[in-house]
Amino acid sequence: MTLRSPDAADNSSAIGNGGWETPPGGAAQEATTPDQRIAMSMGELRRSGWYWGQMTVNEAKEKLQDAPEGTFLVRDSSHTDYLLTISVKTSAGPTNLRIEYKEGKFRLDSVVCVRSRLKQFDSVVHLIEYYVLLSKNKRIETEPLPNRTVHLWLVKPLYTSTPSLQHFCRMAVNKCTNKIHELPLPMRLKEYITEYPYHV
Q1: Between helices 187-194 and 165-176, what is the axis angle to 10°?
Q2: Residues 101-117 pLDDT 10s
Q3: What is the mean pLDDT of residues 85-93?
Q4: Do 151 and 140 meet the contact criterion of CB atoms below 8 Å apart?
Q5: Are 123 and 26 in contact (CB under 8 A)?
Q6: Domain residues of the chain, as ranges?
Q7: Distance between CA atoms of residues 56 and 143, nearest Å
Q8: Distance between CA atoms of 33 and 36, rounded to whole angstroms?
Q9: In terms of CATH, what superfamily is 2-159?
Q10: Are the folds of 2-159 and 162-200 the same?
């Protein structure tokens, strides 16, 4: 993903092509109404450990200022038309990218000509996970960029506090298998693992 002229403002940034645009898709969810889907997605996001809730642009910039490139967090958007914003450290400093929710799907905000080609998701955490995994692959094949354009990598989340060992364990289990219900584990433990089926 690339951004043109990043700044600290919580505004919509233009996403460059870069191979990130794919047909709509996303994780399956049980939620049926928009409110249920948002509530379920926000529940997953709170369990992630890197959702910061209400935070100003300047507070996000301060948190990310000394972080390595690719460090990111998710916070409430200061713009009334959007629920959430990703704040991420780039080579030019911290910048922001909104998450759009429309017709039951989440996707990154972008310029109109690109927006319809961006991948869509039923879950915010699934959206983040997709771009984290894509960033790991794309960083190996870094291409030169036009003037005043920087790569935007989502590499490592900035946690609100150190996650529990149990949370790290369930992420490790989910990285190894997607057949949690076939594991010889108590049902309660299986439920804990599957309530956050992500790798990030």
Answers
A1: 80
A2: 988 899 998 766 666 77
A3: 92
A4: no
A5: yes
A6: 2-159, 162-200
A7: 33
A8: 5
A9: SH2 domain (3.30.505.10)
A10: no
Once rounded to an integer, what is the mean pLDDT over residues 70-95? Answer: 93
Taking Cα atoms as reference points, which of 124, 121, 129, 126 lies closest to residue 105? 121
What's the pLDDT at 102? Answer: 87
CB contact burial 77-107 (16+ within 10 A = b; e otherwise): bbeeebbbbbbbbbebebbbbbbbbeebbbb
Average pLDDT of the chain to the nearest whole number: 81
Quick one: pLDDT band at residue 27, thresholds 50, 70, 90?
A: very low
Predicted TM-score (pTM) of the model is 0.77
Helix (H) or strand (E) holding 73: strand 71-76
107 and 14 in contact (C-beta within 8 Å)? no
pLDDT tops 50 at residue 26: no
Q: Is 76 helix (H, G, I), strand (E, B) or coil?
A: strand
The CATH homologous superfamily for domain 162-200 is SOCS box (1.10.750.20)
Structure tokens at 69: 């490139």
